[in-house]
Amino acid sequence: MNRVDIVYGGSEYSLGGRTAESIQQEITAAMSAHTPYWLPVNRGGGRFEGAFLLISTGIPIAVVSTRVSSDVDDDAADDDAVFIDSD
After folding, report:
1. How many Cα neighbours within 13 Å face the side chain of 21?
2. Are the CB atoms for 42 and 71 separated by under 8 Å?
3. Residue 70's pLDDT is what?
4. Which of 3, 47, 52, 55 has the lowest CB atom count within 10 Å?
5. What residue segments make up the domains of the chain, in order of their start?
6. Is 11 helix (H, G, I), strand (E, B) or coil?
7. Mean pLDDT (whole number) for 41-65
8. Contact 13, 43 (CB under 8 A)
9. What does pTM read for this prediction?
10. Are 65 and 80 in contact (CB under 8 A)?
11. pLDDT score at 86
């Protein structure tokens, strides 16, 4: 199962079943529209709560792809980080 962690305003959020690339494309499309966009995410540990992150110019966001599986060796895990500079 894939999980993407998002760091926004110093807090961590997540999205399950998505790839970093799909989220990056969604954010890029929102930035290209030149209007504020609310990205739906999850927050919390154990019991997730829905949250929305404002995607707009001047607001830094980091997207980190995390592979979640007990079958994957930590050395073999291929985590990718994508930083989107919204300036």
Report:
1. 0
2. no
3. 52
4. 47
5. 2-84
6. strand
7. 89
8. yes
9. 0.70
10. yes
11. 53
Q: Which two tokens stand for residue 87?
A: 């300036």
Give CA angle at 58 (8, 13), nearest 5°: 10
Q: What would the two tokens of residue 37 be?
A: 């966009």
| Contact yes or no for 41/3 (Cβ under 8 A) | no
Band (16; pLDDT cuts 50, 70, 90)? confident
Q: Could you tell me whether strands 11-16 and 61-67 are parallel, antiparallel, or unpaired per DSSP bridges?
A: unpaired
What does the alpha-carbon distance between residue 48 and residue 26 come to, in Å, rounded to a whole number? 22
Please give the single-letter amino acid code of residue 18.
R
Q: Which residues contact 83 (CB under 8 A, 6 or more apart)?
A: 60, 61, 62, 63
Q: How far apart are CA 55 and CA 33, in angstroms?
A: 11
Task: Report the alpha-carbon distance of residue 7 to residue 73 in Å, rounded.
Answer: 24
